[in-house]
Design goal:
4-stranded antiparallel sheet; mainly beta; 141 residues; rod-shaped; Immunoglobulin-like
């Protein structure tokens, strides 16, 4: 008789947690040549904000598209040929693509983006929601 043992390594748990967080946050397919760009997502009363760490990329390198409530941020930076031979090259900028499913209660016509100091900031305003009035009794006169 063989005993089965399950080993829950911290690495395996963190990878599983990360995959579950991606699904829970409605984030869909990500594609990066050399690791994905880091993203911070915050929310306040009037808007959502996505900040992406994109050092080495210019505004012209990054394209932002919206199609059917899916916000796509991608870059296709051309490798620049430099003179000389590298003995070691550790930092490069790789192409990336991130996609986010937006909730239905956002105003897609007013999405704006800024790029400063290697941070791409995208502001996604919320639509003004109709507030339901409390039910009340109407008296008959």
């Amino acid at each position: 008789m063989t005993a089965l043992r399950f080993y829950n390594s911290p690495l395996r748990n963190s990878m599983l947690d990360e995959m579950l967080n991606v699904l829970a946050n409605n984030e869909i397919s990500e594609k990066c040549a050399c690791g994905c760009v880091a993203a911070n997502i915050s929310e306040n009363e009037g808007a959502y904000r996505i900040d992406l760490s994109v050092p080495g990329f210019t505004r012209e390198d990054i394209k932002i598209n919206l199609e059917k409530n899916v916000l796509t941020i991608k870059s296709e930076k051309k490798s620049e040929e430099e003179e000389g031979k590298y003995l070691r090259r550790e930092f490069t900028t790789a192409d990336f693509e991130r996609r986010f499913i937006l909730p239905k209660h956002v105003d897609t016509d007013k999405i704006s983006a800024t790029a400063e100091n290697g941070i791409l900031g995208i502001v996604i305003p919320k639509k003004e929601q109709v507030v339901e009035k409390v039910t009340r009794e109407i008296s008959i006169q």
